[in-house]
Specification:
- By secondary structure, this protein is an alpha/beta fold.
- It has one domain (12-284): TIM Barrel (Alpha-Beta Barrel).
- The chain has 10 helices and 8 strands.
- The chain has helices spanning 29-39, 57-71, 86-98, 124-133, 154-167, 180-192, 209-218, 225-234, 238-258, 272-286, and strands at residues 13-18, 44-47, 74-80, 103-107, 138-143, 171-176, 199-203, 263-267.
- The chain has an 8-stranded parallel beta barrel, surrounded by 4 helices.
- The chain is globular.
- The two termini are 20 Å apart.
- The structure holds flavin-adenine dinucleotide.
- The site of flavin-adenine dinucleotide (FAD) has 25 residues, from β3, β4, α4, α5 and β6.
C-alpha cells in the first residue's frame, strides 16, 4: 500500500523510524527490535539509509522487505542521492521492486567529509522525479519546521519544498522539533504555499543525557524553556530522565492530535521500550488499536 493512501482512515497515521544495526553488530539484531515494534502495529516503519553508503544499501532494503514479510507491516526505505549516480539508483530501485518494497523516502542526504558529491542529483526533488519516472513507487520527502540549515529563509525552503512535492512527493515527514508552535506556524505557511500533501510530525523522545547534548549541537531545534527545565532537572537521574522524556513526547503528541495533525512519526532510536510506552500512552488519543 502507498503511504499516502493511509491518510484517509479518519485518524492520524502512526509510524516508526528504525536504523540498520552498526557494521559491528549482526543484521539479525534488528529483528529483536522489530519483534517488539511489530506488536505495536504501527501503520508503517521506515528504515534509514547511510548518506555515503557507510551502511550497506542492502541492509536498508533487507530490513524493509523483512518488515513486510515477517510482520505484515508496510515499510518505507530511505534513499539518499548526494553521493549517488543514476546507475547506482537504478540498481537500488530494481532491488526494491524485486523485494516488493514500494515506498521510498527520497532524500538529498548530507555531503560526507572526504567524499566528492556526484552530479546526477543535486536536490531531493531531482531524485523524487527520477524515481517517479522509473515505476510505481510511493515517494515521500523530508521537511523542516524550523528551516533546513542550508536554506536562506523559511520562504525559500518552502518554495523548494513545493518543487519537491510537484516533482512527485506525496507525503512529508518532518524533522524533529520540541516546540509544537514551530510546527503549527510551519504547517500554516506550507498550506498557504499550496502544498496539500499530508505532513507527519517527527517526534524524538529525548531520554538520555548524551542525546540532549547531540540535539543541542546538531539539529538546531528550538528548546522551549519547559523542555530545558525538565532536561536540566533530571539529567543526572537516568530513570527520571527517561520517564520525563517519554512524558514530554506524549504531551507533544496529545497537543498535535488535538490540533489536527495528519500523522505522528516516532524516531524510535531502535528502542522498543520507549516506543511501547509512547504507543500505550497515546493509543486512545490516536485511535490506534495496539
Ligand atoms: P532537499 O529537499 O534537497 O533540501 C536540502 C536543501 O536544499 C534545503 O535547504 C532546500 O531548501 C534546498 N533545496 C531543495 N531543492 C532546491 C532547489 N531545487 N534549488 C535550490 N535549493 C534547493 N539523512 C541520511 O543520510 N539518511 C537518512 O536515512 C535520513 N533520513 C531522514 C529522515 C527525515 C524525516 C529527515 C527530516 C531527514 C533525514 N535525513 C537523512 C537527513 C537529510 O538527508 C538532511 O537533512 C539533508 O541535509 C537534506 O535532505 P533533504 O532530502 O531534505 O534535501
Amino acid at each position: 500500500m502507498k503511504i499516502s493512501e493511509m491518510f484517509n482512515n479518519g485518524r492520524p497515521v502512526f509510524s516508526f523510524e528504525v536504523f540498520p544495526p552498526k557494521r559491528t553488530s549482526p543484521i539479525e539484531s534488528i529483528y529483536e527490535v522489530l519483534d517488539e515494534l511489530g506488536q505495536l502495529k504501527p501503520d508503517f516503519i521506515s528504515v534509514t539509509y547511510g548518506a555515503a553508503g557507510n551502511v550497506a544499501n542492502t541492509d536498508t532494503i533487507d530490513i524493509c522487505a523483512g518488515i513486510k514479510e515477517k510482520y505484515g507491516i508496510e515499510s518505507m526505505a530511505h534513499l539518499t542521492c548526494v553521493h549517488a549516480t543514476k546507475e547506482s539508483v537504478d540498481i537500488i530501485l530494481d532491488d526494491l521492486r524485486k523485494r516488493n518494497v514500494n515506498n521510498i523516502l527520497a532524500l538529498r542526504g548530507d555531503i560526507v567529509e572526504g567524499l566528492e558529491p556526484q552530479k546526477d542529483f543535486l536536490h531531493a526533488s531531482d531524485l523524487t522525479s527520477y524515481i517517479k519516472s522509473k515505476g510505481d513507487f510511493g515517494v515521500s520527502g523530508a521537511c523542516y519546521p524550523e528551516v533546513h540549515m542550508d536554506a536562506e529563509s523559511m520562504r525559500e525552503d518552502i518554495a523548494n519544498l513545493k518543487t519537491k512535492v510537484e516533482a512527485g512527493a506525496e507525503h512529508l515527514v518532518s524533522q524533529l522539533f520540541f516546540d509544537n508552535n514551530c510546527f503549527y506556524d510551519f504547517i500554516e505557511k506550507v498550506r498557504i504555499a499550496g502544498i496539500n500533501v499530508p505532513v507527519e510530525a517527527g517526534i524524538m523522545p529525548v531520554t538520555n543525557k548524551k542525546q540532549i547534548e547531540r540535539m543541542v549541537s546538531m539539529c538546531g531545534a528550538s528548546l522551549p524553556a519547559k523542555f530545558s527545565k525538565v532536561m536540566q532537572r533530571f539529567e543526572n537521574n537516568p530513570e527520571a530522565l527517561r520517564d520525563a522524556g517519554i512524558a514530554y513526547a506524549i504531551n507533544q503528541i496529545v497537543d498535535l492530535v488535538a490540533n489536527g495533525v495528519d500523522g505522528i512519526h516516532i524516531y524510535t532510536m531502535n528502542n522498543p521500550y520507549i516506543a511501547r510506552k509512547i504507543s500505550e500512552g497515546v493509543k486512545n488519543v490516536i485511535g490506534h488499536d495496539i
